[in-house]
Amino acid sequence: MNLFYQPLIPQGISYLDADESRHCVKVLRHTVGDTLRITDGHGFFYDAVITKADDRQCTFRIAEKIAQPLRNFTVHIAISPTKNADRIEWFVEKAVEFGVDTISIVECENTERTYLKKERLEKVAISAMKQSLKATLPRIEGLLPFQDILGSNATQKFIAYVDQQNPDHLKNMATAGKDYVVLIGPEGDFSLDELNAALQNGFKKVSLGPSRLRTETAGLAACHILNLINN
Prior knowledge:
Elements: E1 3-5, H1 18-27, E2 35-39, E3 44-52, E4 59-67, E5 74-79, H2 85-98, E6 102-107, H3 118-131, E7 139-145, H4 146-149, E8 156-160, H5 170-173, E9 179-184, H6 192-200, E10 204-206, H7 215-228
Parallel strand pairs: 1-2, 5-6, 5-9, 6-7, 8-9, 8-10
Antiparallel strand pairs: 2-3, 3-4
Catalytic activity: uridine(1498) in 16S rRNA + S-adenosyl-L-methionine = N(3)-methyluridine(1498) in 16S rRNA + S-adenosyl-L-homocysteine + H(+)
Main location: cytoplasm
Domain Ribosomal RNA small subunit methyltransferase E PUA-like: 16-62
């Protein structure tokens, strides 16, 4: 099944944009009368019937609106951008596939990359949402100062910190059915000042296992763990 994206369906828009129309009509060879599955990225799928197979603006009528079942937990990963932009894009893609609600790109003291193409990350997220057949597009925030994340109102707040004296694994500290935020630091890790600031704001220091992980791997591991304990 191919999933198409039109975020403005709730506002009455009943056509695909140019890129989606081209893929639908030129690549997949859909024509008038064919049924499409579309998402608005806001939690709903739509079964729609093509009324005009134009590769510049493919129009449709809605036959059925279907709500994606709500989860009883949310996952927010706040992660430092990697020096190599491809790695943070890989993280966004895979985190969306696993299931993430918010991704915040956070500038820390040891962050090496301070320029970010948010629009590019949003396109990666849209593609991953469609690939994994999800109806909700995660929110992407950034580039944010580290201090902005500390005021999160998540019910469980964690900071993944490379510390051999840290025996508390995320899988044992997180409780199912909660709203989570996990801070993932840069390759040089969080500074002690950042760690202490997080702890003072209700974050708990956690381990992601005995191996030293790359930033993007750590972010994906945290996302996967939180999804697993809720299944």
